[in-house]
Input
Amino acid sequence: MIKYIAHITSLGEIARLDFGKASNNPAEGLDSSTNLTLVHITEELPVARDEFVRTRYYSNGSWNVRSAAPNVVATWDGTAWVWDSADFLNLVRDARNSKLYATDWAVLEDSPLTDSEKTEVRTYRTALRDFTTTTMPASGLLDDITWPTTPSCLA
Output
C-alpha cells in the first residue's frame, strides 16, 4: 500500500509530499508535466511529515538525512546547504535593523531612562549601526552571531 507520494526535484529535494490513495496512484518515475520525479513511500515516515520534508532528500534510489536549512537564504545543491554571503549579510542587516528599531523609544526626549542610561543606549545603537560581521558563522544561523551587548536598562 502506498502511504505517500514524494515529488522530488532534480536536486533530490521534496517539492511536495502527498498522501497515497487507495487506488489510482500515479506511477513512479519522471512526471513530464512537472519535471519532478515521483517516488512511492510504502512505510510510515520515521518522523513527522513536515520534519521529513525538511530533513530528507532522495539520492541514488534512497532517502538520506540532512539538517534542516540553516537560514532562509540557504539552498540545497544536491549534497549540502549553500548560501550566498551577500544574502546572509542582508539577513544580518535585517536583524540589526530590528534591534535598532526596538530601542528607538529609549533615546527619545521623553524616555523614562536616566541620562546615563540613554548614553548607554546611544553607545549600543552606534555599535549596532557600525556592526559588520567579517566572519560568517559556519552554521549560517543568526543565533550564532555575537551581537553587541544589550544595555541592562533595555532588558
Summary: The mean pLDDT is 91. Residues 85-102 form the longest helix (18 residues).
